[in-house]
Amino acid sequence: MLTVTLEFRTEDLTALGILPERLFAHFEQVELLETLRLERGWRLQLLRVRHRGPLRSDEELERESREIRRQYGLQSFEVVGRDPRRREYVLLVRQRNPEALERFLSLAGSRISPTAPFRIDERSVRASFHGEARPLRKVLDRLRHEGLEFRMVRSSTRPYGSEGKDRELTDRQRAVLARAWALGYYVVPRRITLTRLAGLTGQSPPALGKMIRRAEGTLVMQYLASRAIPGSEDGPAGAGRASGL
Known about the structure:
This protein has 245 residues and is of the alpha+beta class. It has two domains: 2-156, no CATH class; 165-234, Orthogonal Bundle (Arc Repressor Mutant, subunit A), CATH 1.10.10. The chain contains nine helices and eight strands. It has helices spanning 10-15, 58-63, 65-72, 99-108, 133-145, 171-182, 194-201, 205-225, 236-242, and strands at residues 2-9, 27-39, 42-51, 74-83, 88-96, 112-121, 124-131, 151-156. It has an eight-stranded antiparallel beta sheet with strand order 4-5-3-2-6-7-1-8, with helices on both faces. Helix 4 (99-108) runs antiparallel to helix 5 (133-145).
């Protein structure tokens, strides 16, 4: 499997119809947090968007929802988090694939998908894709053939984020923790409940809670194993004896 990160000019992707026109009349930045489903004709994604002005209320968004869906090619959208201080929404969107994007997706079949890091601003698009090496290379060749300029930022045979000490986590655990972090599960106070997070993950709250605790336990174990405990030469076990346990 291969992960590549490419950089495009925003104006080129807008000219192709991949990005909606006037996107940055209202937004400063769009960041893909996770692709939940990618099928022929549409995709379901979690996005973080930074608004140019104050955030709209839920009532305002409801009144304007038809125009918002039309302008950005959305079949549906839901606000699952907001940060007024940073002027950011976290949105769950079901979006139609533009014709140009659908051509590239058809070429790749279901063997590649967008992944983090994936950020769009007024000047550039940094886009990452993960999947089988052969279809990824076919898509890159087609981009060059169509004259779409891009810069290769990164290419790796490991998924983004797998190089660090979380390598003992499963892919599913990494994905769940990344989603929980992006949606504010770990901030104080929490921006999203375990029940709401479970609904976005397709699991029951008890099952998701167990998965998160196991993943957190793995990370804590790795952290403790990498550092000597003060006052002990024997690591975590020695710490227990020193405390009288």
